[in-house]
Design brief:
The complex is a heterodimer. In chain A, about 55% of the residues lie in helices and about 25% in strands. Chain A is an alpha+beta fold. In chain A, helix 1 packs across helix 5. By secondary structure, chain B is of the alpha+beta class. The chains are: A alpha+beta, B alpha+beta.
Chain lengths: ~325, ~300
């Protein structure tokens, strides 16, 4: 049959078929390129979202450890205040001076033991000027007492500053029996005579344990050589470089580092009596990588689902169009 | 149908994107997992009163009235005196502090607590109320340069027995364009050191924080004016930067001692101590010394 255009149907059909296949192939390739490009862009967007998410989490972790470090130092002021409160209540209780001058441990116990029990401070030593311990009061689990505190530098300083505005009371971290201890000390004056001193103590480990619970972070104390001396961490903390420790103690800027066990740590100073006593490391678990992976995973899942929802109808439509064109060609 | 599917898929993609960014912004905080010592009392509680070993009830004798000024001095000292008093993690609010008695922390408020969970536990809606233990900064008449601030804050030191008093003189200069020089002193108008019944070898020491809250830098110098008796000739005055260098060590009469150059906003923490040498003899008994410390700023 010859159609209006003077071409035979089979020829036309063949030509049409040729034309249909020829026009369909470039369109299909164009669509494939578009799909691939869209997938690449979406993949890059998901990866970038993951990176941004991780950076955001890291910034929040850094802010959190900073706040925890400040909170730990602030909480230490509270502990100093409690120890000072107990020290004052013992020092200024009527009868303590006379009992200490008489070196009467029985009378001292009667006067001071109820105060210690009610305070929550685990260790109290009452000594005479040469450092001999007249009475030692301990809470359950506290380090055992010793017979003398002779040679303790804080004793001499407390007596020397007894006429100052604070009456020789101050706090510092000392090493007693090999264990770092938060010590608050004050002299006992009876008449015009220095008859002894009262030492109120909490092991630094217990101090950090309490502060760790308050700020919800792991705390580690480092000495001036960068070695950890007390920690609330389960594992062994990493040491600091000695030069880093020295710089930090001299009012250096807080140092951030990633520690073992996927933790983020900020190292600053532990302040006692307005002075840097040791270095303080504050660490929390660092889940920024996990967050990045989760963001990437959820993004990819969303892309896959969206791809299925979009791709299947598009593919079907493409198939339909190809079929229709083929049918037209046959006609 | 295909159009609905496309719209639905587009909405799903948008939701997935929003969810991923929402997770990215989510904080890593958690809920309060265990009781906190600030909220629950840490003291021991007894069903029955405490008893001594002999069976009698435990009692507490009264405290000496001297405990009141002692407590005041301790509370004042516990205030943050230096910006670095929070260990360098955050700037410390000078003049305030988080205090704790009987296990309960009382924070200054209403403001964000330095202990972070207190804010987070109440979903950042927790109001912190408490006592404000702030030091009132002294006010200074705005005085323009060029050379010397005529009115430095004055601190006085009283040694054995003398009642403390401070003196301040004020001079007004002609008005010039408003450039303010303002030096602050955390002991302004209060005795810096009060030492009584000093014995040979005793040391009385306190910190003083000088700050520049003005617009121009200046150099801080120290001048002392005081008694000139035998005791004053024996006493030794030392001024040292906290954790730093020695600035002055010698007799009580000091003049023009250069302390530091302070830029606007800068402060310096100083140890000021008085020492009675061990060699001091009994001839110095019952003597009194008064010493005024003048901190001046020169631009």
């Amino acid at each position: 049959m010859i159609d209006e255009e003077g071409m035979t149907s089979p020829s036309r059909a063949r030509l049409s078929g040729d034309l249909g296949e020829t026009s369909h192939r470039p369109r299909r390739r164009r669509r494939q390129r578009q799909v691939i490009t869209a997938c690449l862009v979406a993949l890059i967007a998901v990866l970038v979202a993951g990176v941004v998410a991780r950076a955001g989490v890291e910034a929040q972790i850094d802010a959190r450890v900073r706040a925890a470090g400040a909170g730990a130092n602030s909480g230490l002021v509270a502990i100093e205040s409690e120890q000072l409160s107990l020290l004052r209540s013992m020092t200024f209780t009527t009868g303590v001076g006379a009992a200490l001058k008489a070196e009467s441990s029985v009378e001292l116990k009667q006067l001071t033991a109820p105060l210690q029990v009610n305070s929550g401070v685990p260790m109290v030593d009452i000594v005479i000027p040469d450092g001999q311990v007249v009475l030692a009061i301990r809470s359950k689990g506290a380090p055992r007492p010793v017979a003398t505190r002779h040679g303790l530098g804080a004793l001499g300083r407390s007596f020397a500053e007894s006429h100052g505005i604070r009456g020789g009371r101050f706090s510092e971290i000392v090493t007693l029996q090999g264990s770092p201890t938060l010590l608050t000390i004050g002299p006992v004056i009876y008449g015009n005579e220095k008859v002894g001193a009262i030492l109120v103590m909490t092991p630094l480990a217990d101090v950090l344990g309490r502060l760790s619970g308050e700020v919800r972070a792991t705390l580690t104390s480092y000495n001036s050589y960068g070695l950890p001396i007390v920690t609330t961490a389960k594992g062994e903390p990493e040491s600091l470089a000695p030069i880093t420790a020295t710089t930090l103690l001299k009012n250096g800027r807080v140092v951030f580092r990633d520690s073992i066990g996927s933790t983020r740590e900020a190292v600053g100073r532990l302040i006692v009596d307005h002075r840097a006593a040791t270095l303080l490391g504050v660490s929390v678990s660092d889940d920024s990588l996990l967050t990045e992976l989760l963001v990437d995973l959820i993004g990819l899942l969303g892309l896959v689902v969206a791809g299925l929802f979009l791709g299947v109808p598009l593919w079907r439509q493409g198939e339909r169009e190809a079929t229709e064109e083929g049918a037209l060609a046959d006609v | 149908m295909s159009r609905r599917l496309r719209y639905g898929a587009a909405a799903l993609v948008a939701a997935a994107g929003v969810a991923s960014f929402t997770m990215a912004a989510a904080a890593t905080g958690g809920s309060l997992e265990r009781p906190d010592s600030h909220l629950s009392h840490i003291y021991l509680r007894y069903k029955t009163p405490l008893q001594y070993p002999n069976g009698s009830l435990a009692t507490s004798p009264p405290l000496s009235p001297a405990v009141i000024p002692a407590a005041e001095a301790d509370f004042t000292y516990l205030s943050f005196e230096q910006v670095s008093d929070l260990g360098g993690f955050e700037p410390a609010p000078i003049g305030e502090y988080l205090s704790g008695t009987t296990g309960h922390a009382v924070a200054n408020g209403p403001r964000q607590a330095h202990v972070p969970f207190l804010g987070g536990a109440g979903r950042n809606g927790t109001k912190i109320y408490g006592f404000v233990h702030g030091l009132t900064p002294p006010t200074t008449v705005p005085t323009p340069p060029p050379s010397t601030i005529p009115t430095p804050p004055t601190t006085s030191t009283t040694v054995p027995g003398a009642p403390s008093s401070t003196t301040t003189t004020t001079t007004t200069l002609p008005v010039r364009p408003p450039l303010y020089i303002k030096m602050t002193n955390n002991h302004n108008r209060h005795p810096l050191i009060r030492a009584t019944n000093m014995a040979p070898g005793d040391v009385a020491r306190e910190t003083v924080v000088l700050g520049n809250r003005g617009d121009v830098p200046f150099v801080v110098r120290l001048r002392t004016v005081g008694s000139s008796n035998a005791l004053a000739r024996q006493l030794r005055l030392t001024v040292r930067v906290v954790g730093g260098s020695l600035l002055y060590s010698g007799r009580l009469s000091a003049s023009g001692v250069r302390i530091a150059r302070l830029s606007p906003g800068q402060s310096i923490d100083l140890w000021v101590s008085l020492r009675l040498p061990r060699s001091a003899g009994n001839g110095l008994q019952l003597r009194r010394v008064r010493l005024d410390l003048y901190w001046s700023g020169q631009g």
